Amino acid sequence: MLLAVAAGFILAVVAPFLAGWLRGWTGWLLAIYPAAVFAYLLTEMPQVAEGEAIRQSFAWAPSVGLNLSFRLDGLSQILALLISGIGTLVVIYTGGYLGGHQYAGRFYAFLLTFMASMLGVVFSDNLLLMFLFWELTGFTSYMLIGFESEKADARKAALQALLVTGSGGLILLAGVLMLGSLGGSFEISELLTRRDIIQQNPRAPWVLVLLLLGAFTKSAQFPFHFWLPNAMAAPTPASAYLHSSTMVKAGIYLMARIHVLFAGTDTWLYVVTTAGAITMVAGAYLAIRETYFKRLLAYTTMSVLGLITMLLGMGNSKYAVEAAMTFLVAHALYKAALFLVAGAVDHETGQRDIKNLGGLAKSMPLVAIAAGLSALSMAGVMGTFGFMAKELLFEAALHSTWYLVLTIAALVAGSLMVTVAALVGWQPFFGPRQEVLEHAHNGPLSLWLGPLVLSIFGLTVGIAPWILDGNVIAPAVSAVIGEPAKFHLALWHGFNLALLLDIVALAGGLALFFFITPIRDTLQRWDLSGRYGPTKWYEGALHGLNVVAAGQTRFLQNGYLRLYLLTIVLTTVILVGGVMLFSKALPPEIFTISDLQIHEVGLALIILVAAGMAVHASNRLSAIAALGVVGYGVGILYVMFGAPDLAITQFVIETLTVILFVLVFYRLEAYTPLSSTATRFRDLVISASAGALMTVLVLLAGEGQWFPTIAEYYNENSVPLAHGHNIVNVILVDFRGIDTMGEITVLAIAGLGVYALLNLRPEDREDKT
């Protein structure tokens, strides 16, 4: 598993170079990687089907609970098969879709990086590792959506997806850290055995909400769904891969993975089921208003994601989990195929609006077959894999706690999905022929191979469900519910209520299809979601964020160094001082003065008086002299407290500083007051507060010893290890040599800067005649 993930990142680095050499054959060659991962998963399938989990772990940062831990069980297997299997076809498809594109190599690099990251998400057995790959999928999806960066809508859509899913990622991180704290481990396999411990903690509902928010943003659940249709600005291979079968399923995977821990709780039932049901119906409704091929498919993807979420939310219902896992596969097969069909149609005809498409079956017969078979599965027609998934959906809804509401919601969404299936599978290929499509044709093999394979496989599984039920779906169900599950799909379960509901959905959807034009026009005329819906919420929030950021920048980044220093000092005083006061971390004994000596008090007074004179001096030379007194006073303090080496250094530096200041400052003009009395009083208060804070911190630091002293180590080892008797020099040169080298580097750079400034010469502006 580690090799499978790492190979993707390595191949992504060399992909641009391969694209430059191989050109049209690049997709075929790069497809070997996901095909090899798919083959590996097939070899492990018998062991996983027996209920065993294959685990690999390598120490990375064990002190913080981060390990390279990977786990292959039924749930990770079902997602990994989709990622690698569909990924193979998408990489091949990319070669035909982007053939001749000057940045095709860059696209391959992003796509392979995303593929490896997604495999990392589903293979990870460590929460922190999973989150790392989770964020990588968000970054690479941003690059893929905005691939055509010259287009404003692509840049805007990429930023929107990044902001929404990235914000959810930050929330997810908080949930991950809290879950690891509650369960005492970040290893997922260990957490799954600690359900009772986690649920008994009063913070468990809040942890669940944080995790769900991260999952909802990733899987486009209402009200975070709006980024998904806009992401259709991405090239079709990215849309087919990321936004139908992989990235948007990451949130589904997370909910399925934590199902064992939280399913059955009130928070899980109400939040997950409700969000899923609303998303399911809203997505199907929004889809029938659309006419652009890919956006229409995107809304139906949103609907199915809501459907699967709703099923996972139905507690520990075996029917619901079975339906969820079946729909997970069925949707990936037919939706990836339809996205690839949309791309092939766009590539060969230049048309994206289904109102301008029709009669393509004659000129694009293979693409039409793929679209027709996939649409039948999407509609849930008997004999397809989609039919089995939809029948299980109705069965799960009928056995749920809220059976009446959820059954009606499933029926409405199912009917609308039939309408959409007819719109994308029938109208473009068997509708009236359009004049703009005279030159349409199937295109190269790479464009129609993927959708045809996926659609035929969906039909095959519908006829022979034993191909997947025992080897793929049953192990996934077992992993989700946390106990062995026997599961068998069948083409015919007899005439029952679920079948009747499927027939009603088919009839209702077909009826809507025949009247779709007036219905769509009416919905578009009266629909208010675009004006008041979540998209407007996002735009308003983004505008508000930009306004706040601009105001904050004008206030904080004002260009005045003195204000920067005031901000830093005042913030430190308020935060640190406030914590010290409210936490009562100031023991009275630190302020005792019984052990003070008269000469120490006298030296302190001299330093204070000299500092005051430096501030109030009327000319620069007096101020420099006063500062020199302060410096020499500090040097005497070093002598008094046993640090003669520091004292000598202080005396030398202070002498040089005073001389340099005198040589430079006497050339400047006399002091000129540049600030008002109120400003100087403000600065006095802030500086006095900072000085008081530092005094208290020094007293606290000297009050106790939190760590063993290292002085003895230096005393004992300076001669035998470093061969030096001057301990300070040994520390600087040997024990802390890298620190010293860094300091020397900084000084050298500063010296070069000073040298450059001193050698600047103003141009001779005198007129020369």
Verbal overview:
This protein is 73% helix and 2% strand. With 769 residues, the protein is mainly alpha-helical. Helix 3 runs antiparallel to helix 4. The longest helix is centred in the N-terminal third of the chain and has 32 residues. It is elongated.
Keywords:
two-stranded antiparallel sheet, disordered C terminus, 769 residues, elongated
Q: How do the strands of the widest beta sheet line up side by side?
A: 1-2
Q: Summarize the amount of helix as a percent range.
A: over 70%
- The overall pLDDT, averaged over residues, is 86
Gap between N and C termini: 80 Å
Strand elements, count: 2
State the major sheet: 2 strands, antiparallel
Helix and strand composition category:
mainly alpha
Tell me the radius of gyration.
35 Å
